[in-house]
Amino acid sequence: MSTPSLNIRHVLGDEADSGPNIQLLPPKEPSASKKLSAKDEIHIFDGKNTPQNISVYGFILGMVCSAGIMFAVLSDSKMPQFGIFLAALSLFHFLEYLATALFNADKLSLDSYLINHSAHYHAAHAAALLEFLIEYYFFPSYKTFSWINCLGLTLVIVGQSCRTIAMFSCRHNFSHHIADHKQHDHVLVQHGIYSLMRHPSYFGFYWWALGVQVLLINPVCLGLFVYWLQKFFSERIQYEEHTLHRFFGQEWVAYKAKTPTLMPFIA
């Protein structure tokens, strides 16, 4: 008995012409994974200015600060300066974001934490941490907490205080980036800490960064930091003051003549 052959043309023909025993299969439903929209995808630590990144960065900074304080105060470690360093570093980045959020909300972004400042910035802190750990391993007595660490902590506190006070005094006039064009509400701030020194935020970071190296008793990094900070701020202040002269003319000239920077070798 012969088996009837299947008519391929009939199967592939119009649905109306299909036989009663031949049914076209409905299209497959997309899988659940393919139904996920872009809003359902998880993006974190991708460097983008998103609420999840901002919240996670803030959370991590708070955890690091708390852990650093607990390590310095509550532990029996012989290197409390390491915990103080972690607390100071995380607090610095948090205050940068807070000041921007309070007075420059329109400029607020993930970069306001200054965590992604530059590769050089990351390399500098990595080198400082590496030097501290290596010297502590080979010369533990050399890293014993003493008056030198207290001096470094004092410089860190003074530096952080000056920078934060400067940002709160300058308010909306403060920016992490040098302005090339004068905004209509941009004024030359001369009151408060600005009456004592020009560029108090730079002054603050300068001594904060050097204070960290003294706190950790890092002689190699201290020398390198002095060189690079001097070079960086000399060039940055020269350029910024050029723009301020364009913005404010004689008002800036008079202010500069009577107000020092209080930073060594930077007039």
From TrEMBL:
Subcellular location: Endoplasmic reticulum membrane; Membrane
Gene Ontology terms describing biological process: methylation
Record membrane topology: Multi-pass membrane protein
Any one Pfam family match given in the protein's UniProt record, by short name: ICMT
Gene Ontology molecular-function annotations: protein C-terminal S-isoprenylcysteine carboxyl O-methyltransferase activity
Keyword annotations from UniProtKB, A to Z: Endoplasmic reticulum, Membrane, Methyltransferase, S-adenosyl-L-methionine, Transferase, Transmembrane, Transmembrane helix
Gene3D superfamilies per UniProt: 1.20.120.1630
EC number(s) recorded for this UniProt protein: 2.1.1.100
Family, similarity comment: Belongs to the class VI-like SAM-binding methyltransferase superfamily. Isoprenylcysteine carboxyl methyltransferase family.
Name listed for the protein in its UniProt record: Protein-S-isoprenylcysteine O-methyltransferase
Gene that this sequence comes from: PARPA_00162.1 scaffold 368
